[in-house]
Amino acid sequence: MRDLLLYIVVLGCLVAVDWIATEGKYSRAVWRAASEHAHYVRYQVGYLVDDNAKL
Predict the structure, then answer these.
(1) How far apart are CA 16 and CA 25, in angstroms?
(2) What is the pTM of this model?
(3) Confidence of residue 55 (pLDDT cuts 50, 70, 90)
(4) Helix (H) or strand (E) holding 49
(5) How far apart are alpha carbons 24 and 19 in whole angstroms?
(6) How far apart are alpha carbons 19 and 27 in whole angstroms?
(7) Angle at 27 between CA 41 and CA 22, to 5 degrees
(8) What's in the keyword line of the UniProt record (predicted)?
(9) What residues make up the domain containing 1?
């Protein structure tokens, strides 16, 4: 029983260290992708508004 508890604690610590170590990379990549997508959406909305304003 103690071995199982120790195994769970060690595994939890390894997962936490992995999450902390990689969170910065993933969050920057996600932020960059979201920013690029938002820029594209703003461009498309501006294009549609300008096109409708000409009508």
Answers:
(1) 15
(2) 0.47
(3) low
(4) helix 2-54
(5) 9
(6) 11
(7) 155
(8) Plasmid
(9) 1-55
